[in-house]
Amino acid sequence: MGAPSSTYRVQFTPSFTFADATGIADYLARLGVGALYASPMLDAREGSTHGYDVVDPTRARPELGGEDGRKAMQERLSELGLGLVVDIVPNHMVVPNPWWDDVLAHGQASKYARYFDIDWSSGKVLLPVLAEASDDEVHEHHLKVDWRRGNTELNYRRFFDITELAAVRVEDPEVFDATHREVLSWGVTGLRVDHPDGLADPGGYFRRLREHFDGWLVVEKILGPDEPLPQSWPVDGTTGYDALREVCGVFIAPTDAFAGDFHEVEHASRQQVADSILVAEVRRIARLVQGVPFEDACAAVAEVMVNFPVYRSYLPEGSRYWETAVRLSKSPAVRALDEQVRADPHGELATRIQQTSGMVVAKGTEDTAFYRYTNFVALNEVGGAPDRFGLPVEEFHQRAAAREAQTPDAMTALSTHDTKRSEDVRARLAVLAEMPEEYLAFESEMSAKHGLSEPTLNRLAWQSLVGAFPITAERLGQYLEKASREAKIKTSWVDRNAEFDAEVAAWPSKVLNEPEVAAFAERIKAPGWSNSLGQKLVQLIAPGVPDVYQGTELWDFSLVDPDNRRPVDYVVRRELLDRIDDGWLPEVDDSGAAKLLVVRKALQVRARGLHGYRPLRAEGPAAEHVLAFERSGVIAVATRLPVTLARTGWQDTVLPLPDGRWTDVLTGRPAPESLASLLDRYPVALLTRG
C-alpha cells in the first residue's frame, strides 16, 4: 500500500466515536481527503479524551464503539475510497491495567513481569498512589511513598514524568506481538508511531514492524533544524514538525526586535528538569556507571543529557550528537561515562541514557523553555527554533526540494494535537514581526494598565490574547494556568503559589473587554488571514503528505491541548462546502470559507498525484513578497509579508510562468503574469494548465 494523497486527523473521545467518524466520512471524501488519520483506537482509560493512555492493546476501545464500530467505520471509508491511518503507542501503557495488576500480585513470577521496564534490583514495584502523604498516613496504609517522592525513588520507567504511564518493553518479541497483534490485524493504510525516542532500540523496532506491516509508516520524531532522520529506519518519514517549522517560518519577517538568549533559558530549563522531575531516571542510569562515586555519576549523566544538541542520538549511528554533548559537559565523571557508552553502544547504559535524553530535552525545551522564553511565541513550536527568526525563501526552496528527493512520502503538518497553538494563531502572530514597534508599544501600554507580575508570562499572555482573539475568559484562563505552571517560575503543577495563581486566573476578565485589545486584534486580522491562506496552500501542494487537523479547514484559533480538542461543527462545514461546490467564491472574512475553498481545491489537485519541485521566482519591486513553485503542472503562489506589501502594492511585479495556458482553479480565471491581477481576489493562487 502506498501513501495516501493527504490525511485528515480526528481526535476520538467518548463524545466523538467511531460512529461519528463514519458519519463525516462522506464529507471528508468530498473535501478531497485521501485518508482518515485517527488518534489511538485501542482500549484506553475510561473517559480519556486523547487515547494515549492505553489500558488494553488487544481490543478496539469499547467507549468508541468497539470492534463492531471500528469495522463499520473502515467499511464506510473503503466504500468512499478513503484509507485509514492509525496512531499507535508502543512506548507505554496506563497503569493500573490487567497485565500490571498481575505483576503487582506476583512480582517477578508474573508472566507479564518482562512486559514492563522495572528495576527489580531495588525491590518491589514502587507505585505512588497518595496525593500527599504524611508519615502517619504512610504507616497507616503500609505504603512506601507519596507522589512527590516518586520523582526521585520510582523504580520503573515511565512516559516522561507521568507515573500512571508505565513504559513497555516492545524490544522483547513476545511483548511486541502482544501489544501489536490486534492493530496489525485491522488492515489499515498507514500507521503513525508515537514517541519512538522512548524505545530501547527505535531502529530495531521499526525493522520488526516492517516485517509485519508494508503500509505507509510515519514516526513522531522531532528533528532539530539541521538533523536528518536516521537512514537505517525503514519508515516513510516524520509526522511533519520539520515541515511545520519551514512552512510557518517563510511567512515570518526577519527582525531583531524580539531578540534574546534562548539557549541560556533552554539550558537552565533542561537542568531543572533533570534535577527534579526526572531525577529517578537519572539515578537509575547513574547506578550503571562503573568506577566513579554515585553522586558524580548522577551529575555526569544529567549534564550530558542537558547538553544534547538533538532529542537523542541513535548510537552508533548518531555518534556526532553524543560527542557534542560530551564535549560540552564538564562533570568529572563524564570521561568514564563516555568510555563506557562507546565501549558498548547497545548496552544497558547507552540504551537508557538515549531513552532518557529525549525526556530531558522535551520536558526542558518544549514544556518549560517554550513557556519561559516568550519574546515571540509564534516560533515556540514543537520542532521549532526560537533562535532562528524566519526562513528565507531560497532556504525554503532548498529544503522542499530535499524533502521531495529524500522523503517524498513524509507527513507534513501545520496543526496537531500537540502543537502549542494552531496554525491560524501562529499565522496571525507572524504579523507582529512586520510591525514590532507597533506591537511592543501596545504591549507596553497595556501592561502598564493590566500587566501580570511575572514578565515572561505577561509577554506570553498578551501575544496569546491577540493571537486567539476573540476568546472566552474561560479558555484563556485555562491556557494561562497551564502556561504558568509549565514555566515553573512563580508557580508549578507540583508547588502551587496560591496568590500568583489567583492573579493569573483573574487576568482574562480584566483585559478581554479593553477596547485597545479589540482594536489591535482587528489591525492584525486581515494580514493574519493572508498568512493563513498562504501557509495552508504551500503545505497542501509542497512535497510530503499533508495533514489537515480536525476543523482547521476553517479558521481555527485554538491554543494548546485540551483547547485544540474542542468539538468541531461539521454542520457548518458541510453547508459552506455545498456553496463552494455550487461555484461560490467566498470573501476572505470571519467565516473562514475562503480557507475551506483553498483546502478543497488544493486537496482535489493533490489527489491527482504531484511529483518534482521547481522553484519559481517573481521579478519586480515586490518580488520578495511571493513564494511560488511548480509540481507536475501545478503552480502554488502565496503572498508573504502582507503588512509591508500593503505600503507599496505589487506595482509591476510579475511571476513569469512556464509555457502554456494557466488557470487559477480558485477563481476559474485565466492566470496573468501580473501579480497585481493574479492576486486581486485572494492572496494565493493555485494554477493548472488549461
How would you sum up this structure in a few lines?
44% of the residues lie in helices and 11% in strands.
Characterize the structure shown.
Among the domains are: 7-91 and 170-239, TIM Barrel (Alpha-Beta Barrel), CATH 3.20.20.80; 98-167, no CATH class; 262-372, no CATH class; 434-521, Orthogonal Bundle (Arc Repressor Mutant, subunit A), CATH 1.10.10. It starts with 6 loop residues before the first strand and ends with a strand. It is of the alpha/beta class. It contains 25 helices and 19 strands. Residues 130-144 have low confidence and may be disordered. It has an eight-stranded parallel beta sheet. It has a six-stranded antiparallel beta sheet with strand order 14-15-16-19-17-18, with helices on one face. A three-stranded antiparallel beta sheet has the order 6-8-7. Helix content is 44%, strand content 11%. Strand 7 (158-159) and strand 8 form a beta hairpin.
